[in-house]
Design goal:
The complex is a heterodimer. Chain A has 8 helices and 23 strands. Chain A is of the alpha+beta class. Chain A has 3 domains: 212 residues, Rossmann fold; 84 residues, Beta Barrel (Elongation Factor Tu (Ef-tu), domain 3); 105 residues, Beta Barrel (Elongation Factor Tu (Ef-tu), domain 3). In chain A, strands 7, 8, 9, 11, 12, 13, 15 and 16 form an 8-stranded antiparallel beta sheet that branches. In chain A, strands 2-3-1-4-5-6 form a 6-stranded mixed beta sheet, with helices on both faces. A 6-stranded antiparallel β-barrel of chain A has the order 17-21-19-18-22-23. The two termini of chain A are 42 Å apart. In chain A, 50% of the residues are buried. By secondary structure, chain B is of the alpha/beta class. Chain B is 34% helix and 15% strand. In chain B, the strands form 2 sheets. Chain B has a 6-stranded mixed beta sheet with strand order 3-2-1-4-6-5. A 4-stranded antiparallel beta sheet of chain B has the order 8-7-9-10, with no helix packed on it. In chain B, strand 2, helix 3 and strand 3 form a beta-alpha-beta unit. The radius of gyration of chain B is 19 Å and the shape is globular. The interface between A and B is large, with 81 and 66 residues.
Chain lengths: 416, 304
């Protein structure tokens, strides 16, 4: 059984929580006591049907306001796959949550209301999914029951979205007409839409091919923790613990340690008490080197002929996540892989209008939930790749040094 | 166990394990004084196993903290001692009894031990100056937990502010703290109850015997089967009798109910869990049933 992580996004009334409730219910991931509680609440509120949204809205204030505030993670499994859903709120003011949910997703699921068609928000969601390089996108055209399952309505939205998507970076797109409330094309094929020949949503989620999304060529191993037992039994043991961020590492490989540039060979790769032949993403392993070179947390092990160039000048897209705007000359803490340093904002090149994709080059700052392109100068060299090549070595977070809060999410375009 | 992978694919259990090990190492590298909160339950045992793997062949580089309610199952304490001895880690026991005696918490006779644990725990974290405390919480357990971060920031009162959580992106965790604050770390956030059981089965690790089917004198209260004990005498109208049961969760024995079951192996437990129609907490935890927001309220105060 493998794992698929997907992020969902939709506007307030697109029926996203209902859809998730439906997926959980139909895959039997919801328990009787949870369903009974929701049924009781729905009845007490005088609803005509069981409001499945109540299953996912976990915080009291959310139930009171009838909206989803924060990223919630949901789990279900079918015989072939385990799924982790990052359920993100769709309101304008919570874009940062959408970015958060999409950062770890293999697939993005955007909902639109068939009656409304594409809205500013659905475009924004698609842009964020594209910007975060989520490799697969599903547009679910929901509430088909409310437009009499009319193919013309679906075709119009399909065409409009496909045209918009050409401007984005979306390697794989699937558009599916559904009714989350009644279950059409969610798990079981809809009898109301014989004109639709494609997969149901669940079938697509179960079968979408994600194995090739990883980079298995460019070996990248950020050193996380130096394992030194200091015991009699393992007196001379010195291993480097970390999670493979790209490529395949094998015993005997000639490697370079960055930023020092020292070279060595891999003496062995350990997974707990076993030695393994090779390691690939996202394995957490311990690597031993043949030579006694100086390696510590924050360093990176890569191949001699295929290693990133250490750089302190970073060009990146930023999603700003706090109310105090980002301005040039600001100094922030930066965390990139296992490396931490400080960063100076040298320039804000433009703000990206996520609705029109217009680049506003006159901008002097980036506000909450705004996305833009910036230049940074860092105190320590980053051992990075473009985000388009590697989502692990191409991403970083910015931290406000006074409050300690994560204020920005960065995706590297290039470094020099 | 992971063998040669011709297709470079990891099973979901291997992926979850890799993610959890990454979190353990990250915390050990970035925090000065981490501690692992160990209840003896299946989730904290899986955490111990993951910590063991993360640092092998070195020992786990932080101590283990257990809150002793005074009402713990003896089988659970035995398993705790076996684990602690085998791994050679330091065990710190924070006793609710002691906390009551020292006036850290007040036992008014109405408050459950589980609630008194909060004050006892916060006090132990403060006394040990711990800056990061690993907990075995899983997001699939409960609605409020579904919104918990892996690194969950707690203010100087140990409180959780659900509306003001730090965004958590990629696998880049932000461990910045101010004086007096600490972080709760949930390395098995993305595991489900079934993942936990599959992992225990795969790893062949010791868990308390009360998870398996056994004979026990129990009585019914509020629709739950509770253990007869000196701490929990039968009230008028309640009658204890011997039944074949097992526990789905482990906690304060006066509040933790069991279920009738003949499951005596991990595989049989997995079959049972796979078809269970009631959540583990809803079925057997008196402390979570008081209101729809019971867990959210206790979490805000500093509950695990």
């Amino acid at each position: 059984m493998d794992l698929l992580r997907f992020a969902t996004a939709g506007s307030v009334d697109d029926g996203k929580s209902t859809l998730i409730g439906r997926l959980l219910l139909d895959s039997k991931a919801i328990f009787e006591d949870q369903l009974e509680a929701v049924e009781a609440t729905s009845e007490a509120k005088g609803y005509d049907y069981t409001d499945l949204a109540l299953l996912t809205d976990g915080l009291r204030s959310e139930r009171e306001q009838g909206i989803t505030i924060d990223v919630a993670y949901r789990y279900f499994a079918t015989p072939t796959r385990k799924f982790i859903i990052a359920d993100t709120p769709g309101h304008v003011q919570y874009t940062r949550n959408m970015v958060t949910g999409a950062s770890t997703a293999d697939l993005g699921l955007v909902l639109v209301d068939a009656r409304q068609g594409l809205t500013e928000q659905s475009r924004r969601h698609a842009v964020i999914i594209s910007l975060l390089r989520v490799p697969h996108l599903v547009l679910a055209v929901n509430k088909m029951d409310l437009v009499e399952f009319d193919q013309a309505v679906f075709d119009k939205i399909h065409a409009e979205f496909t045209q918009f998507a050409t401007k984005l970076n979306i390697p794989d797109l699937e558009v599916i007409p559904i009714s989350a409330l009644q279950g059409d094309n969610v798990v079981t094929r809809s009898e109301n839409m014989p004109w639709y020949q494609g997969p149901t949503l669940m079938h697509h989620l179960e079968h979408v091919h994600v194995a090739s999304d990883r980079d298995l060529i460019d070996a990248r191993f950020p050193v996380q923790y130096v394992v030194r037992p200091k015991s009699d039994e393992f007196h001379d043991y010195r291993g480097y613990g970390g999670q493979i961020a790209g490529g395949v590492l094998k015993k005997g490989d000639e490697v370079v340690v960055l930023p020092s540039g020292m070279t060595s060979t891999i003496e062995g790769i350990d997974l707990f008490d076993q030695e393994i032949d090779q390691a690939f993403p996202p394995m957490s392993v311990t690597v031993r080197l043949a030579d006694d070179v100086d390696v510590s947390r924050g360093d990176m092990i890569a191949r001699v002929k295929n290693a990133p160039t250490p750089s302190q000048d970073i060009d990146a897209m930023i999603c700003w996540m706090t109310s105090e705007p980002l301005r040039p000359k600001q100094k922030l803490a930066i965390k990139h892989t296992t490396r931490t340093g400080r960063a100076l904002v040298k320039d804000i090149q433009y703000r990206l209008d996520v609705n029109t994709l217009h680049r506003d080059q006159e901008t002097k700052e980036l506000g909450l939930n705004e996305i833009g392109r910036i230049q940074l100068r860092t105190t320590v060299p980053l051992l990075c790749d473009p985000y388009s090549k590697n989502r692990t070595t191409g991403s970083f977070i910015l931290i406000d040094e006074a409050t300690g809060v994560t204020v920005g999410a960065g995706m590297i375009n290039s470094s020099s | 166990m992971t063998q040669t992978h011709v297709d470079y694919q990891l099973s979901q259990l291997d992926q979850l394990e890799a993610e959890s090990i990454h979190i353990f190492r990250e915390v050990a590298a970035e925090f000065e004084r981490p501690v692992l909160m160990f209840s003896g339950g299946k989730d904290s045992i899986v955490m111990m196993r993951l910590a063991e793997k993360a640092f092998y062949p070195a020992k786990i580089p932080f101590p283990v903290l257990q809150v002793d309610t005074g009402y713990d199952f003896p089988e659970v304490l035995a398993t705790r001692d076996n684990w602690v001895n085998r791994l050679g880690v330091r065990l710190i026991v924070a006793s609710v009894e002691e906390a009551i005696k020292n006036g850290v918490v007040v036992d008014d006779g109405k408050t459950s031990r589980n609630r008194l644990q909060i004050g006892t725990l916060l006090n132990a974290l403060e006394e040990g100056s711990f800056t990061a405390a690993f907990g075995g919480g899983r997001r699939d357990e409960e609605k409020a937990r579904a919104k918990e971060r892996v690194y969950s920031h707690r203010d100087e009162f140990g409180q959780w502010d659900p509306k003001n959580q730090r965004p958590e992106l990629w696998s880049l965790y932000n461990g910045r703290l101010h004086e007096g604050e600490h972080m709760r770390i949930f390395p098995i956030s993305n595991w489900t109850e079934l993942d936990i059981w599959h992992y225990i089965g795969r790893e062949g690790i010791e868990i308390p015997s009360i998870y398996f089917s056994h004979q026990r004198r129990v009585f019914e209260r509020d629709g739950m089967l509770l253990t007869e004990s000196e701490f929990n005498p039968c009230r008028p109208g309640e009658e204890a009798r011997e039944r074949t049961v097992r526990f789905r969760t482990v906690g304060d024995l006066t509040l933790t109910g069991c279920v009738e079951s003949t499951a005596s192996t991990i595989d049989e437990i997995i079959d049972e869990v796979a078809i269970a129609r009631v959540t583990e907490r809803g079925a057997t935890r008196g402390d979570d049933r008081f209101s729809e927001a019971a867990m959210e309220d206790r979490k805000k105060e500093g509950y695990f």
